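Bit of a strange request maybe. I'm writing a small parser for structure token strings and I need a real example to test against, not something I typed by hand. Could someone generate the tokens for this chain?
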Amino acid sequence: MLIVLAEATMGEGALDKTRAAMATMLEASRAEEGCVSYAYAIDVLDPSKLHIVEKWVDEAALAFHFQTPHMAAFQGALASVDVKITELAKYQADDGSPMM
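Reply from user aminoacidic:
Good idea to test on real output. This should exercise your parser:
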């Protein structure tokens, strides 16, 4: 499994301006074959910071994701606001195990 972790800093009003595009991206990405999970979270201590956590079954699923129309539309929406990706990395992982 691949885990993608990203952080972005969003300028004033960027979240409100991109909320609909983000919702569309979430729905479409979660429906992709090979997507295990896909989520956004706003940092509780810094509301300008967006965390993105993605899990994909393999590299092919992630590569397909980057070629989808909804990814292109999402990138277009982000281009119209003040958003800066501050971290972006992918990790190989096993399927994990319960901690409780």
